[in-house]
Amino acid sequence: xxxxxxxxxKSSNIITNDIPPKINQNSLIDFRRKLTSLxxxxxxxxxxxxxxxxxxxxxxxPDILYVHFDKTFYVIEREIGKALNRxxxxxxxxxxxxxxxxxxxxxxxxxxxxxxxxHETLRGILHEERTLTFLxxxxxxxxxxxxxxxxxxLLSSKGALFxxxxxxxxxxxxxxxxxxKFYLFVPLEKGLEFL
Length: 195
Description:
Elements lengths: L1 E9 L14 H21 L8 E8 L2 E8 H27 L3 E13 L5 H8 L6 E2 L8 H13 L2 E12 L2 E15 L8
Parallel strand pairs: 3-5
Antiparallel strand pairs: 1-4, 2-3, 2-7, 4-6, 6-7
């Protein structure tokens, strides 16, 4: 895996100091806008790829694994939104559990050029015999054997792996930090680009 870029993205806290704590939707929108623009800019500038082409985008993490097959820009925006909502719910539960204000205002975005099967988390998930499910509008246009071929090509292709590290910490105790991780893999091979 070759590290290409690393970004630290900050915004206002996603959890309010209200009792009970609430999710700050404006902060989630700000994070989604910033993260999406960073990824789209790098697809254009670093990888010379059009983010409006349709691609099978691999989405994985400790508890999720699927392929979202649609226009790359919309998939990235939608998946970042889902991940941010999971992070906000986790930070809110963390705050309620600890009965203390939680600071969740920073995401580190690491970007790698790699083959997805080189990643330990993905290999561990695939070892548990999970099958790749396809989401989006495009999979209905293909037969199941064609989708298997696309998934094989996707798992062995080179591309951009975006690792999201979302931090939540109790404000009074900086040593206790909860990190939620989530990954997006965008294939860069021409054979996996569709108009």
